[in-house]
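Observation: inputs received (chain + cobalamin).
Thought: call the complex predictor directly.
Action: predict_structure
Action Input:
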Amino acid sequence: MVDYALMNQYLYEGKAKEVEQMTKDALAEGRHFQEVMNEGLIAGMSVVGEDFKHNILYVPEVLIAARAMKAGMAVLKPLLSARDSDTPRVGTLLMGTVRGDLHDIGKNLVAMMAEGAGFDVHDIGVDQSVEKFMAAADRVKPTIIGMSALLTTTMTYMKTVIDGFESAGRTDVKFAVGGAPISQMFADEIGADGYGQNASAAVDLFLKLSGAARDEAASAAPTVAARDADAPAARPGTRTTYRVLYWQEVPVQIRGEDDAGNEVSVELPRSVARVDLLAAQRGLSGGDDYSAQYTWGDEMERAGSAADVVEAVRSELEQGVTG
Ligand code: B12
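Observation:
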């Protein structure tokens, strides 16, 4: 029998193969695809979003979890596409990242979750001008246009798109905006109809804008195993198991847990800049290609508390990182 809590945990840990297999198993067992998606995938991803917000997870871990979600969604996709006859669509969503901006991981995640919530999603990709948004809107007649921007230099273009639609007399569509530098205040300033901080909030917003309400039970995030908050201090003789996360050959993050239950995770800031550069040089800037380069190294063990071991490994790795 399908264990959704375990599936959520696998998704959280980015175990794509396990998530894919459990999705297949759940369907084979006769579970409805909507249930599998809500309870197995979206619920898991909501926890990832929450933990990202509270700095428990870093960006690479979000990307790895998103990859696992995508593996599960790929299994459900044919069923999602075939459901038109028996499920009323909630609305039509046109999604794109604005001109000058190539970031699409967050947008893709939002699109995936919106599709799961019952929207017809048309994703026009990155670097989209107002003309392209308009041409696409003519084609698909969206109820909502969702724009994404990750750069402070491109977020202002969202206003250009909104103004463009307004001067063309196209006031029949609602605008939702999002991306790391966006805020509710900015959304208000540029005349957007709403802002969503993460994929789950984005779906709530889309549902609100299209007049549909979210089922509370379906959107409630399950809790993940309690971590280090109340763990006792490490004693002498404590050992820590740790793993290093790599983007190709570049170490980007270390996560360790000692036998007293303390968990510590740090990013290697210099490596992030190096990854940006290498991604561009190696032609791996596209969302899927970029995310696919992340892999966890083998689990290792050392004497010491999680904080001490992770700090020691960080310092060793930093010395080995050039550029
Ligand atoms: C991955 C990444 C890249 C990848 C992008 C791969 C891809 N295909 O997307 C690569 C390496 C290509 C890249 C390139 C660059 N990047 Co970059 N990048 C990042 C990084 C590390 C993570 C972004 C990400 O994917 N986050 C995870 C997703 C899940 O979160 P998210 O995008 O915020 O999306 C969520 C919400 O915002 C919301 N949301 C998103 N869209 C929408 C839309 C709607 C409608 C709604 C409602 C909600 C919503 O829901 C999402 C899911 O929860 C950020 C740092 C950071 N911490 O954000 C820098 C960052 C965004 N990049 C930055 C920079 C400067 C660049 C470059 C200029 C670097 C360079 N030297 O070349 C280029 C620019 C290229 C370009 N023209 O766009 C800066 C931006 C600084 C700024 N304030 O402007 C950042 C903040 C890093 C930094 N601290 O300096 N980058």
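Thought: report the result.
Final Answer: The mean pLDDT is 87. Strands lie at 91-97, 119-123, 144-148, 174-178, 194-195, 239-247, 250-258, 263-267, 294-296, 300-303.
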